[in-house]
Amino acid sequence: MQGAGKSHVQQKEQLMSYQTRKIVASLILLGFMVCWIIMVGTVGPMVSSWPKWAELLFYVFAGIGWIIPFKPIFAWMNRNAPPQED
């Protein structure tokens, strides 16, 4: 019975409650931020010998680049979220 309802992905998502997804997403983001900070802190001193324009590009990317993975993680976390009550 292939067309009998939900896809395999939807069935797996229902195994994880909204509260569990929030906790998992928070831990993933926290771990990512720790790794990002360590990476920037490690590479940062090496960048000081680069040309000023390259150093600027590195610090702009380091300052903004950490935001990139947040959108897909938040989208996953909020998928099938219960409606908010006012």
Would you kindly provide a written description of the structure presented here, covering whatever features stand out?
- By secondary structure, this protein is an all-alpha fold.
- The chain has a domain of 28 residues.
- Helix content is 70%, strand content 0%.
- It contains 4 helices and no strands.
- The longest helix is centred in the middle third of the chain and has 30 residues.
- The protein is elongated and about 50 Å long.
- The model has no long low-confidence stretch (mean pLDDT 84).
Indicate the topology.
Elements lengths: L7 H8 L2 H30 L4 H13 L5 H9 L8
Helix pairs in contact: 2-3, 2-4
Index terms:
single chain; 86 residues; mainly alpha; 70% helix; 0% strand; elongated
Secondary-structure-derived class: mainly alpha
| Averaged pLDDT | 84
Q: Number of DSSP helices?
A: 4
Would you report the number of β strands?
Answer: 0
Q: What's a concise summary of this model?
A:
By secondary structure, this protein is mostly helical.
